[in-house]
Amino acid sequence: AAPPQNAQRAVGFKITALTCCFLGTCALTILKGGGHFRSPVGFECGSNGFWMLYFGSLPWVAAFAFYFRSLLVSEFEQKVRKGHVFAAGEVQWDSRNTLRYPAICAISGLLAGLFGVGGGIVKGPLMLEMGIMPAVASASAAAMILFTSAAASISYIVFGLLHPVYGALFFLLGVACTALGQYSVGQWVKRHERQSPIVLSIGLVILLSSVLVGVDTVAEAIGPRAGELMRVHGVCTAEA
User: Fold this and answer.
1) How remote is the C-alpha of 51 from its chain's centroid?
2) Which residues cross the membrane (predicted)?
3) In 3D, which of 65, 121, 142, 60 has the Cα closest to residue 98?
4) pLDDT in tens, 200-213
Protein backbone atom coordinates (compact mmCIF):
# COMPACT_ATOMS: atom_id res chain seq x y z
CA ALA A 1 0.00 0.00 0.00
CA ALA A 2 1.10 3.56 -0.69
CA PRO A 3 2.24 5.72 2.24
CA PRO A 4 -0.54 7.87 3.70
CA GLN A 5 1.15 11.12 2.64
CA ASN A 6 1.56 9.93 -0.95
CA ALA A 7 -2.04 8.72 -1.05
CA GLN A 8 -3.35 12.05 0.24
CA ARG A 9 -1.17 13.91 -2.25
CA ALA A 10 -2.53 11.78 -5.10
CA VAL A 11 -6.13 12.42 -4.04
CA GLY A 12 -5.46 16.15 -3.77
CA PHE A 13 -3.94 16.18 -7.25
CA LYS A 14 -6.99 14.41 -8.72
CA ILE A 15 -9.36 16.88 -7.08
CA THR A 16 -7.28 19.77 -8.40
CA ALA A 17 -7.33 18.33 -11.93
CA LEU A 18 -11.09 17.80 -11.74
CA THR A 19 -11.54 21.38 -10.56
CA CYS A 20 -9.46 22.62 -13.50
CA CYS A 21 -11.71 20.65 -15.85
CA PHE A 22 -14.77 22.26 -14.26
CA LEU A 23 -13.33 25.77 -14.39
CA GLY A 24 -12.32 25.33 -18.03
CA THR A 25 -15.83 24.20 -18.94
CA CYS A 26 -17.31 27.21 -17.15
CA ALA A 27 -14.84 29.54 -18.89
CA LEU A 28 -15.83 28.20 -22.33
CA THR A 29 -19.51 28.71 -21.47
CA ILE A 30 -18.95 32.30 -20.37
CA LEU A 31 -16.69 33.16 -23.31
CA LYS A 32 -19.18 31.97 -25.93
CA GLY A 33 -22.03 34.01 -24.41
CA GLY A 34 -25.59 33.67 -25.70
CA GLY A 35 -29.12 34.75 -24.85
CA HIS A 36 -29.02 37.91 -22.73
CA PHE A 37 -25.28 37.60 -22.05
CA ARG A 38 -22.88 39.01 -24.64
CA SER A 39 -19.61 37.19 -25.26
CA PRO A 40 -16.65 38.90 -23.51
CA VAL A 41 -14.51 38.21 -26.60
CA GLY A 42 -17.08 39.63 -29.00
CA PHE A 43 -18.47 36.45 -30.58
CA GLU A 44 -22.04 36.78 -31.77
CA CYS A 45 -24.40 33.93 -30.99
CA GLY A 46 -24.45 31.60 -33.99
CA SER A 47 -21.09 32.74 -35.37
CA ASN A 48 -18.18 30.42 -36.12
CA GLY A 49 -16.40 31.48 -32.94
CA PHE A 50 -19.52 30.81 -30.92
CA TRP A 51 -19.80 27.23 -32.22
CA MET A 52 -16.07 26.62 -31.73
CA LEU A 53 -16.40 27.53 -28.06
CA TYR A 54 -19.71 25.68 -27.79
CA PHE A 55 -18.25 22.37 -28.97
CA GLY A 56 -14.84 23.11 -27.45
CA SER A 57 -16.01 21.67 -24.14
CA LEU A 58 -16.14 18.18 -25.71
CA PRO A 59 -12.39 17.81 -26.47
CA TRP A 60 -11.60 19.65 -23.23
CA VAL A 61 -13.55 17.16 -21.10
CA ALA A 62 -12.42 14.21 -23.25
CA ALA A 63 -8.76 15.13 -22.67
CA PHE A 64 -9.26 15.01 -18.90
CA ALA A 65 -11.22 11.76 -19.20
CA PHE A 66 -8.42 10.02 -21.10
CA TYR A 67 -5.86 11.41 -18.68
CA PHE A 68 -7.74 10.11 -15.65
CA ARG A 69 -8.19 6.77 -17.40
CA SER A 70 -4.46 6.39 -17.97
CA LEU A 71 -3.84 7.39 -14.36
CA LEU A 72 -6.28 4.80 -13.00
CA VAL A 73 -4.97 2.02 -15.25
CA SER A 74 -1.40 2.83 -14.20
CA GLU A 75 -2.35 2.72 -10.51
CA PHE A 76 -4.19 -0.58 -11.02
CA GLU A 77 -1.26 -2.22 -12.81
CA GLN A 78 1.10 -0.98 -10.12
CA LYS A 79 -1.08 -2.54 -7.43
CA VAL A 80 -1.19 -5.85 -9.32
CA ARG A 81 2.60 -5.93 -9.67
CA LYS A 82 2.98 -5.35 -5.93
CA GLY A 83 0.53 -8.15 -5.10
CA HIS A 84 -2.13 -5.85 -3.71
CA VAL A 85 -5.18 -7.68 -2.31
CA PHE A 86 -8.32 -5.84 -3.37
CA ALA A 87 -10.82 -5.35 -0.56
CA ALA A 88 -14.56 -5.75 -0.89
CA GLY A 89 -16.03 -2.77 -2.68
CA GLU A 90 -12.68 -1.68 -4.15
CA VAL A 91 -13.06 -1.20 -7.89
CA GLN A 92 -10.42 -2.76 -10.10
CA TRP A 93 -9.79 -0.05 -12.68
CA ASP A 94 -8.35 -2.17 -15.45
CA SER A 95 -8.35 -1.23 -19.14
CA ARG A 96 -11.86 -2.67 -19.60
CA ASN A 97 -13.59 -1.11 -16.61
CA THR A 98 -12.09 2.32 -17.35
CA LEU A 99 -13.94 2.28 -20.68
CA ARG A 100 -17.10 0.45 -19.66
CA TYR A 101 -18.20 2.47 -16.64
CA PRO A 102 -17.41 5.95 -18.05
CA ALA A 103 -19.37 5.04 -21.19
CA ILE A 104 -22.36 4.01 -19.06
CA CYS A 105 -22.08 7.24 -17.05
CA ALA A 106 -21.88 9.35 -20.23
CA ILE A 107 -25.00 7.76 -21.70
CA SER A 108 -26.87 8.01 -18.40
CA GLY A 109 -25.85 11.66 -18.07
CA LEU A 110 -27.18 12.40 -21.55
CA LEU A 111 -30.49 10.70 -20.79
CA ALA A 112 -30.73 12.36 -17.39
CA GLY A 113 -30.24 15.75 -19.01
CA LEU A 114 -32.92 15.05 -21.62
CA PHE A 115 -35.42 14.00 -18.96
CA GLY A 116 -34.48 16.78 -16.58
CA VAL A 117 -33.31 14.62 -13.68
CA GLY A 118 -29.97 14.45 -11.90
CA GLY A 119 -27.25 12.16 -13.15
CA GLY A 120 -26.79 10.89 -9.61
CA ILE A 121 -30.03 8.96 -10.03
CA VAL A 122 -28.13 6.64 -12.36
CA LYS A 123 -24.64 6.93 -10.89
CA GLY A 124 -25.66 5.96 -7.35
CA PRO A 125 -27.29 2.62 -8.28
CA LEU A 126 -24.48 1.92 -10.77
CA MET A 127 -21.84 2.23 -8.06
CA LEU A 128 -23.90 0.05 -5.73
CA GLU A 129 -24.08 -2.57 -8.49
CA MET A 130 -20.28 -2.35 -8.76
CA GLY A 131 -20.07 -3.45 -5.12
CA ILE A 132 -18.97 -0.08 -3.76
CA MET A 133 -19.86 0.74 -0.17
CA PRO A 134 -23.16 2.69 0.03
CA ALA A 135 -21.54 5.60 1.87
CA VAL A 136 -18.84 5.89 -0.80
CA ALA A 137 -21.39 5.59 -3.63
CA SER A 138 -23.58 8.30 -2.10
CA ALA A 139 -20.67 10.67 -1.50
CA SER A 140 -19.27 10.13 -5.01
CA ALA A 141 -22.65 10.78 -6.62
CA ALA A 142 -23.08 13.93 -4.54
CA ALA A 143 -19.62 15.20 -5.53
CA MET A 144 -20.42 14.59 -9.20
CA ILE A 145 -23.74 16.45 -8.91
CA LEU A 146 -21.93 19.41 -7.31
CA PHE A 147 -19.73 19.88 -10.38
CA THR A 148 -22.36 19.09 -13.04
CA SER A 149 -25.10 21.20 -11.43
CA ALA A 150 -22.77 24.16 -11.01
CA ALA A 151 -21.70 23.97 -14.67
CA ALA A 152 -25.32 23.65 -15.82
CA SER A 153 -26.38 26.57 -13.62
CA ILE A 154 -23.71 28.80 -15.16
CA SER A 155 -24.96 27.86 -18.62
CA TYR A 156 -28.54 28.73 -17.63
CA ILE A 157 -27.38 32.04 -16.15
CA VAL A 158 -25.54 32.93 -19.35
CA PHE A 159 -28.66 32.32 -21.43
CA GLY A 160 -30.85 34.18 -18.94
CA LEU A 161 -32.94 31.12 -18.11
CA LEU A 162 -32.28 31.02 -14.35
CA HIS A 163 -34.44 33.19 -12.14
CA PRO A 164 -32.09 34.61 -9.45
CA VAL A 165 -34.67 34.39 -6.67
CA TYR A 166 -35.59 30.81 -7.52
CA GLY A 167 -31.91 29.90 -7.86
CA ALA A 168 -31.00 31.34 -4.46
CA LEU A 169 -34.06 29.79 -2.81
CA PHE A 170 -33.43 26.29 -4.12
CA PHE A 171 -29.72 26.58 -3.35
CA LEU A 172 -30.43 27.35 0.31
CA LEU A 173 -33.10 24.65 0.39
CA GLY A 174 -30.64 22.13 -1.02
CA VAL A 175 -27.97 23.05 1.52
CA ALA A 176 -30.41 22.80 4.43
CA CYS A 177 -31.91 19.49 3.31
CA THR A 178 -28.48 18.03 2.61
CA ALA A 179 -27.23 19.01 6.07
CA LEU A 180 -30.34 17.55 7.72
CA GLY A 181 -30.14 14.32 5.74
CA GLN A 182 -26.40 13.96 6.26
CA TYR A 183 -26.73 14.40 10.02
CA SER A 184 -29.77 12.16 10.50
CA VAL A 185 -28.53 9.32 8.30
CA GLY A 186 -25.04 9.61 9.76
CA GLN A 187 -26.37 9.29 13.29
CA TRP A 188 -28.48 6.26 12.30
CA VAL A 189 -25.51 4.53 10.69
CA LYS A 190 -23.31 5.15 13.72
CA ARG A 191 -25.94 3.97 16.16
CA HIS A 192 -27.07 0.83 14.34
CA GLU A 193 -23.89 0.16 12.30
CA ARG A 194 -25.92 -0.52 9.16
CA GLN A 195 -25.63 0.93 5.66
CA SER A 196 -29.22 0.16 4.65
CA PRO A 197 -30.60 3.72 5.24
CA ILE A 198 -28.21 5.06 2.58
CA VAL A 199 -29.36 2.46 0.06
CA LEU A 200 -33.00 3.08 0.93
CA SER A 201 -32.58 6.84 0.57
CA ILE A 202 -31.04 6.42 -2.88
CA GLY A 203 -33.91 4.14 -3.89
CA LEU A 204 -36.49 6.57 -2.52
CA VAL A 205 -35.00 9.49 -4.46
CA ILE A 206 -35.01 7.43 -7.66
CA LEU A 207 -38.64 6.39 -7.11
CA LEU A 208 -39.88 9.90 -6.37
CA SER A 209 -37.94 11.42 -9.27
CA SER A 210 -39.28 8.85 -11.72
CA VAL A 211 -42.86 9.40 -10.56
CA LEU A 212 -42.56 13.20 -10.68
CA VAL A 213 -41.00 13.15 -14.15
CA GLY A 214 -43.90 11.01 -15.37
CA VAL A 215 -46.49 13.26 -13.75
CA ASP A 216 -44.87 16.40 -15.16
CA THR A 217 -44.69 14.89 -18.65
CA VAL A 218 -48.37 13.91 -18.64
CA ALA A 219 -49.39 17.31 -17.26
CA GLU A 220 -47.45 19.12 -19.98
CA ALA A 221 -48.83 16.84 -22.71
CA ILE A 222 -52.48 17.41 -21.81
CA GLY A 223 -52.17 20.95 -20.46
CA PRO A 224 -52.80 24.28 -22.22
CA ARG A 225 -49.13 24.48 -23.34
CA ALA A 226 -49.21 21.10 -25.09
CA GLY A 227 -48.62 22.76 -28.46
CA GLU A 228 -45.38 24.30 -27.17
CA LEU A 229 -43.75 20.93 -26.57
CA MET A 230 -42.84 20.35 -30.21
CA ARG A 231 -42.22 23.99 -31.08
CA VAL A 232 -38.70 24.66 -32.30
CA HIS A 233 -36.90 27.57 -30.63
CA GLY A 234 -33.89 29.40 -31.95
CA VAL A 235 -30.49 28.57 -30.48
CA CYS A 236 -29.78 32.20 -29.68
CA THR A 237 -33.09 32.99 -28.00
CA ALA A 238 -33.77 32.96 -24.29
CA GLU A 239 -37.16 31.31 -24.66
CA ALA A 240 -37.87 28.61 -22.07
Assistant:
1) 23
2) 12-31, 51-68, 101-122, 134-159, 165-185, 197-215
3) 65
4) 877 887 788 778 87
